[in-house]
Design a protein that fits this description.
298 residues; alpha/beta; Metallo-beta-lactamase, Chain A; Arc Repressor Mutant, subunit A; seven-stranded mixed beta sheet; 14 strands; 28% helix; 22% strand; elongated
């Protein structure tokens, strides 16, 4: 799900289970959970020295948890922050709290996600000690982290701004190695566009995503991300003009360059675009019989 105009960055120097000092205030440990969706794996970030915050403790892989325990053995873990509750981000929070203490911070999914199972691997058991809201600040003597709601990829997705380094931890909202999947019913394309605008309105100079390397030209990159989504909607609109009205037909037309095992994920984002087009009166969902739904352009 890449776009040729997005200046992707894919080179990343790291070793699994090793802690890296990547800036004066930030350390990183990469989990060994590589996939088509996680790239090399989940980046867990440790903020500060002494009294620290951990962002996205990741999956409950023994090697990764042991690496975090080793990296944190001389620190006091005050806060454990979760960008969102996919299973490659949040499950490690509870084992980390059991070992080191600290408070788990995160946001709740919107109600629909609790009523309907989705195609994604969601950590349904996640229960934060403290609920993040817009503008929540988490502070130590050394650093200040601000919570920024960025729904779209998931309804409870948060980014975290580190004031002292003018840095934004973008989770899965903006990644340097690939575009982000938006998967209904919890994911929402309208929310995603609005959240990209939130990032564009800010002045952070570096993004540290949850997968892959950092992003340095943040404004240019985020604009390219947004333009890619606009381009994809225009392509979907042309598919509707041709009478291609199902998600599968559109995926077959637009994503023939992808391996077939990625078509399901592509279809989730296509559906999110179609729902956004319906919401904005550019498309309509019709039914042939009781279950065969097709989209048409208005």
């Amino acid at each position: 799900m890449s776009g040729s105009k997005i200046p992707f960055r894919k080179q990343m120097e790291f070793e699994y289970a090793e802690v890296q000092q990547i800036t004066p205030m930030i350390r990183r440990v990469v989990a060994r959970n590589p996939s088509n969706f996680t790239y090399h794996g989940t980046n867990t970030y440790i903020i500060g020295h002494g009294n620290v915050a951990v962002i996205d403790p990741g999956p409950t892989i023994k090697e990764h948890l042991e690496a975090l325990k080793s990296a944190l053995k001389d620190d006091t873990v005050e806060h454990i922050l979760v960008t969102h509750t996919h299973n490659d981000h949040s499950p490690g929070a509870v084992p980390l709290r059991e070992k080191f203490g600290g408070q788990i911070w995160g946001a709740h999914l919107k109600e629909i996600a609790g009523q309907q199972r989705t195609a994604e691997s969601i950590d349904w058991n996640f229960k934060p000690d403290n609920v993040l809201r817009s503008g929540t600040q988490i502070v130590s003597d050394e650093w200040t982290i601000e919570a920024i709601p960025t729904p779209g990829h998931m309804s409870n997705h948060m980014c975290f701004a580190l004031k002292e380094e003018n840095t934004l931890f973008t989770g899965d909202h903006i990644m340097g190695w690939n575009t982000t999947i938006v998967s209904p019913p919890d994911g929402n394309m309208r929310d995603y566009f609005e959240s990209l605008d939130v990032c564009l309105s800010r002045e952070e100079e570096i993004y540290w995503p949850a997968h892959g390397p950092e992003i340095t030209n943040t404004k240019r990159f985020t604009r390219a991300y947004k333009n890619h989504r606009r381009m994809r909607e225009a392509e979907i609109s042309k598919c509707l003009e041709k009478g291609l009205g199902s998600v599968q037909e559109i995926v077959d037309s637009l994503y023939h360059h992808l391996p077939t095992d990625m078509h399901g994920a592509a279809g989730r984002s296509v559906l999110a675009h179609l729902e956004h087009m319906v919401e904005t009166n550019r498309a309509r969902l019709i039914f042939n019989g009781e279950k065969d739904g097709r989209f048409i352009r208005i």
